[in-house]
Amino acid sequence: MNTGNKIIGLMLASDNCEGTRCYHDMVKACEDTWIDNSKYASNIYKVYGKSHNPSLVSDVETNEAVLTNNNEIVVNTIESRENLLRKTISAMEFCLNTISDVDYFFRPNCGSYVNTSLLNEFLSNKPRVGYYNGINGVYDGIKYASGSCFIISRDVAELIVHNKTELEYNGRVLMDDVSIGKFLSDHNVALQNDAKRINCKSAQDLTDLFDIGCYHYYFRHTINPELIYLCHRMFENNNK
After folding, report:
1. Which of 11, 40, 38, 37 is nearest to 26 (CA)?
2. How many domains does the chain have?
3. Chain segment 188-236, per-residue pLDDT in tens
4. Burial of 1 by CB count in 10 Å (0-12 exposed, 13-18 middle, 19+ buried)?
5. Looking at the domain assignment, is residue 195 inside a domain?
6. Residue 147 in domain
7. Residue 51: which domain range?
8. 186-195, pLDDT tens digit by residue?
């Protein structure tokens, strides 16, 4: 049984807005709650495109990705849904080049609440080699782990980074999670099917569906930070 896993989180972040709803509010809610309270992930980085911090653009373009003092990895790409895979792989490569002690990566987005204590417990008996897991989906015959929060072992991250030119980066052709799923299938990395996730679109959903044993709550495209805060309060209240 695995104990003391070294886990790194790479959370997709953005400053973009849809009308009056802005993703930076979701990022702030994640920072205030599950990221701030995490004791079971070595680091959780917020992964942005280069428009996030214009003062870093020259450094980002020179180095492909740079780390700020606020645990932000800023990647040399324009912020858009079509470029999510480039953000993911560049951030993964940055971590592999700078951090030697890691067993797993998990890649959520800022619409997710992740209880890293429960995630660590979930991974306690999982293999540290050849591991790829997340809520299973199928697109055009391609099986993949949902980008809301997929998990891979270090060797799988290395496989992706070392062969990064093989993946489809255009999100209009294949979204990031589907592209990774196709690549890993082509390289005979099996997709596991026991990940946990609860989908919620409202406070009522969260109240009705809340499970103290589930490590991942996904609020989809609601862009409602209050659901992140509510989820956190529910975990705190249940742990008293």
Report:
1. 11
2. 1
3. 999 999 999 999 999 999 999 999 999 999 998 788 999 999 999 999 9
4. exposed
5. yes
6. yes
7. 7-238
8. 999 999 999 9
Q: Where are the alpha helices (DSSP H) in 99-175?
A: 116-122, 154-162
**Which runs of E-coded beta strand occur in the chain?**
7-12, 17-18, 21-22, 43-49, 65-67, 72-75, 104-108, 112-114, 132-133, 136-139, 142-145, 149-153, 198-199, 216-218
In this structure, the strands spanning 72-75 and 149-153 are: unpaired
Residue 173 CA: distances (Å) to CA of 22, 49, 58, 140: 26, 20, 29, 11
* Pairwise CA distance, residues 64 & 57, whole Å: 10
Residue 1 lies inside a defined structural domain of this protein: no
pLDDT of res. 1:
39
User: What is the CATH number for 131?
Assistant: 3.90.550.10
Query: Is position 24 within any domain?
Result: yes
Which pLDDT band, with edges at 50, 70 and 90, does 240 fall under?
Answer: low
Residue 116 corresponds to which tokens in the numbers above?
A: 């890293």
Q: Mean pLDDT over residues 29-39, rounded?
A: 91
238: pLDDT strictly greater than 90: no
